[in-house]
Amino acid sequence: MNGLTYAGYLQLDKLLSMQEPRTSDTAEREVVLAEHFFIVAHQASEIWLKQILADLLAATDALRPDYGNSDADLSVEYLDRVGRLLGLLHDQLVALEKMPLRHFAEFRPYLGTASGAQSQQFHQLDDLLGNDERPEGLYAAFEAYTVAQGMSIGSVCRLGSSAGVLHRVAEGLIDVGNGFWRWKIAHLTMISAMLGERPGTAGSSGAGYIASRIRLPFPQLRRLRGEVHEALVPTGTPN
Question: Is 33 exposed, middle or buried (0-12, 13-18, 19+ CB in 10 A)?
Answer without folding.
Answer: middle
